[in-house]
Amino acid sequence: MTPETAMEINPMSDRKQDILASRYEVARFRPVRQRRWWSLLRWFDSSLTTGLQEGDGTRIDGIRVLPFLLLHLSCLGVLWVGWSPTAIAVAVALYGIRMLAVTAFYHRYFSHRAFKTSRGAQFVFALLGASAVQRGPLWWASHHRHHHRYADQKQDSHSPLQEGFWWSHMGWFLSRANFPPKLKAVPDLVRYPELRFLDRFDALVPALLALSLYGVGEGLGAMTPELGTNGLQLLVWGFGISTVVLYHATFTINSLAHRFGSRRYATSDNSRNNFWLALLTFGEGWHNNHHYFPGAVRQGFRWWEIDFTYYFLRLLAATGLIWDLKQLPAKSRGGWSGTARS
Ligand SMILES: [Zn+2]
Ligand SMILES: [Zn+2]
């Protein structure tokens, strides 16, 4: 089978995909009364949904968000475990790899289908995305598509213009209303059981990453004590600090990139182009460009608009792992010749 045909197996009509998405949504629904206990169980199985009640739109689920808070607290562990060049290198590397996984795969591939790939690679991309601890691919892509549809309008889940900075930065995804994925927005993804699995058990990949870091740290501590590291130190730096920094860098695109920066295009939302945010998020800071042409594989439209994610995707395309990179319409290419080939 050629890679080109891999994604075309069992082509499914839009209508069939919609029906599958609806069925999956119904199958996930289990009405229960003890919402508190089920919040706890949802740490392990995100499909345990109890349905929504009045006021859930802005109500923070205190139990469900404990892991998020604990991850922040874990950064204080540095007072006990100290630091080493190895631990810092691991934290930086995991920031870089997982930021790319979020921007290239969760965002540009799963949310916008800006390029094509094989089913196997698609699964690996989802695994890497899940390691960023930002829930599963269906959840991430569905909420993001919803954002593009209603950007900065009343229905937008995370508009700083509608609900303020903190809500757009992190309040929105801690609220009860936004815990379930919006499955009807991702019928093209719901049809893959392996993606549904990763989405349902969205703590699995992060837990494996944390365990691996501990194991590698203990191994290094025993075999190469001169590195001055150990399991707990790698856990605090590689999982705690790296993930928390990755979190807040990602969240700035929802909060700051809709407030601060310039607007090249008069889009119907308040999206901005911001150089500093683009550096921090490997290209996602060109957010006004992105809202203007969300389907494009690149977000830096001019040669000087640094977009590491795009360069990385060009490299992947050169290896043959991805193809059909969606380019900009000629009028948007500006100062660049726009000769990018997929
Ligand atoms: Zn936006
Ligand atoms: Zn987008």
Automatic annotation (TrEMBL):
Entry's EC annotation: 1.14.19.1
Which keywords does this Swiss-Prot/TrEMBL entry list? Fatty acid biosynthesis, Fatty acid metabolism, Iron, Lipid biosynthesis, Lipid metabolism, Membrane, Oxidoreductase, Transmembrane, Transmembrane helix
CDD domains annotated for this entry? Answer: Delta9-FADS-like
Q: Which GO terms describe its molecular function?
A: stearoyl-CoA 9-desaturase activity
What does the entry list under GO cellular component? membrane
Listed transmembrane segments: 63-81, 87-106, 201-222, 234-257
Q: Which GO terms describe its biological process?
A: fatty acid biosynthetic process
Cellular localization per UniProt: Membrane
Q: Which InterPro entries match?
A: Acyl-CoA_DS, FA_desaturase_dom
Task: Please name the Pfam families in this protein's record.
Answer: FA_desaturase
- Tell me what topology the record assigns in the membrane: Multi-pass membrane protein
Domain of life here? Bacteria
- Domain Fatty acid desaturase per the UniProt entry, residue ranges: 88-310
Q: What class of enzyme is it?
A: oxidoreductase
Family to which the UniProt record says this protein belongs: Belongs to the fatty acid desaturase type 2 family.
What is this protein's name?
Answer: Stearoyl-CoA 9-desaturase
This protein's species is Nitrosococcus halophilus (strain Nc4)
